[in-house]
Each structure stands twice: as C-alpha cells, then as structure tokens.
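We treat protein structure as text, and this decision shapes the records that our systems exchange. Because each token names a local backbone shape, the row as a whole describes the fold. An entry from our holdings is shown next, in its original layout:
>
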Amino acid sequence: MKRALVTGASGAIGAAISRQLAADGLHVIVHANRNRAAVAALCAELQQTGQSAEAVQFDVADAAATQAALERLLEAGPIQVLVNNAGIHDDAVFPGMSREQWHRVIDVCLHGFFNVTQPLIMPMVRSRWGRIITISSIAGLIGSRGQANYAAAKGAVQAAGKSLALELATRNITVNTIAPGIIESEMSKSAFSPEFIAQMVAMKRTGKPEEVAALAGFLAAEQASYITGQVISVNGGMAG
C-alpha cells in the first residue's frame, strides 16, 4: 500500500484531499500543526470506514521539528505521495505590512514546502515512483490585494515545482501544482460577498473542496504519469 502525507489536513481542502486519497486505497498520514483535534477526528473517520490513516503533528516552518517527524514516519518506508497543502495568510496592504507578517507567511508557505519536501525526495527516488502535489492559489498567478506576502510565497512554490519536476522526471516522479480559486470554507464565506463572486467567477459560485481533491487524486494516480511541471487552476473561470 502506497503511503501519502497531506500537510494542513485540518482545513477544508486538506481534509477533502485526505478523504480522496484514502478512498483511492492509499495509507494517508494527515497532518496539522495547531489543530491536532481536527486531524485526529479525520483519522478516526477514515478508519471507521475501513480506510488506512494516521495523524501527525508538527510545524512545517520549524525545520528541525519537521525533520524529526519525517524521520520517524520514514522508518515505516517511503512516502510516495506528498501533498503540500499547509499554509497561512496574514493580510495587509503592503505599505502597512509588518516584517513579522511577511516572514511568517513566507516561513510556512514557502520554507515549509522545502522543509517537508526535501527530506522525502531520496526515499521516493529509491522507490522509483512518486507524486508531489503542491496546493498553491490563484493569488500566485494573478496577485491579490493585501496579500503580497501570500502571493509571493505561492508564486515561488509554483516555480520551485516546475524546477523540481525537471530534476525528477527520469525517476518516475511527477511534480505538479494546483492553484485553487475561491473554494467554499468558513473563511471564504466571510471574505467574499456573493456580488464579488458573481463578478469575478464565470461560474458564479465558489468551488467545493472535493473539486480540488478530485484533481489531486487524479494527479496522484498512475493515469497521470505523463503530467509533470504543471500549474493547474481550479477556479470556475475566475477573471484575472
């Protein structure tokens, strides 16, 4: 049974991706930093339906803690599917953005990508099969007012993924990025009015976490073995 790690699985998208991968027959390691209770409940939910899952907790921005946690996980064998979903935002217009706001978002969204992905590469290479999927954002493609830090981090992981795809292409390891638009969640309900969605999104609705998860499940499967180095948007035709 292949093993998958989904970081940031306490959120709506991460939880949906975890359910998708578990339903596809993978052993899913669901990760959280602060919200351990949410991933423990998700893990129990998956196990109750006969699927294979375990929960893990660490801060992706803490390189040493991440390394230690991954070393423990790798004792059971390689992690062959990695979904880099952990991320935060801390919004402010750029002239009013604090140094702390800039660095914390970069630390989690960009440095976290390195801290989690880099230690898993060589075990994946030795297994001669792997899938690395990073959840970015439309902000990394078209920008977003008040989110220069978040857009910078998300744009950077897209570029890093393209480079990593070139390095790993001959190893039967694909590297792709999903850039969601406005996806249904508690945050999106408060952040985006129906009028804004109707104006900006051609489909005039928010996306569902399961619609992002379906793409992640496909990219993690054998059928997607010739797709690598891509940034794929799931945004309902959102205007740039």
User: Anything to note?
Assistant: The radius of gyration is 17 Å. The longest helix spans residues 99-127. The mean pLDDT is 96.
